[in-house]
Write a structure and sequence with these properties.
single chain, about 220 residues, mainly alpha, 9 helices, about 85% helix, about 0% strand, rod-shaped
Length: about 220
């Protein structure tokens, strides 16, 4: 009986150790690739702008071309205020399209000074780097974009985003701690149940062994 009891305790101990190790595993947060997110947003917006520009070149609609270029200008200003890195990538892609289709654009622009100013203004903004883009205050002002104040807005947005990220990390950590506590409590209860079941099983096995031994002894005595 002692042997069965010790086996039951060993089973319970192994069960507790195994569950305990699972509960202690750290909760790993998925890494966030900020550069990939920037490229994704810039590419999506540029694809949309290029699609609109392509449609105007096919239709040769000067009014539609002006609307599309105004939208590009507004998007550059929006992205500078949000994150200049997105503005830089977005502008570079749109400029590339306008350069590749310069002849078609000129054919539609003709002598329209307003549209010509938009085309030249967008092309004049340096997009080789964020620094060059945000530093080109004169080129941006020519399009009615106040880069200085927009960059300040971007810095404020970045600070707010960082603060929110810290709070989010704190909340995630607190949630992980609570989850770990719950897992540990469940592990203890599971181990208790396993130990109890193992002990009961051992008792039954021991009782059966005693009964079998008594029956064998009686049989040997002819009882």
């Amino acid at each position: 009986m002692k042997k069965f009891f010790m086996m039951a305790i060993a089973v319970a101990a192994m069960t507790f150790a195994s569950c305990g190790n699972d509960a202690k595993k750290p909760v790993e947060a998925a890494p966030v690739d900020s550069a990939a997110l920037i490229t994704e947003e810039a590419t999506a917006a540029a694809d949309d702008a290029i699609s609109q520009l392509s449609a105007t070149l096919e239709s040769k609609d000067a009014s539609a071309l002006q609307t599309a270029l105004e939208a590009v200008k507004a998007k550059v200003a929006e992205f500078i205020a949000k994150n200049p890195a997105i503005a830089q990538e977005y502008l570079a892609k749109v400029q590339g399209f306008l350069k590749e289709n310069a002849d078609a654009v000129k054919a539609i622009v003709g002598s329209n000074a307003t549209i010509a100013g938009l085309v030249d203004g967008i092309a004049a903004i340096p997009s080789e780097s964020v620094e060059k883009l945000t530093g080109a205050t004169d080129a941006l002002k020519a399009l009615g974009i106040d880069a200085t104040n927009l960059v300040k807005d971007a810095a404020a947005n970045a600070a707010e985003g960082a603060a929110n990220a810290v709070e989010g990390a704190k909340d995630a950590a607190a949630g992980a701690v609570e989850s770990a506590k719950d897992a540990a409590a469940n592990t203890v209860e599971s181990a208790k149940d396993a130990a109890s079941n193992a002990v009961e099983g051992a008792k039954k096995e021991a009782g059966k062994a005693v009964d079998d031994a008594a029956a064998a002894a009686k049989k040997g005595l002819g009882l």
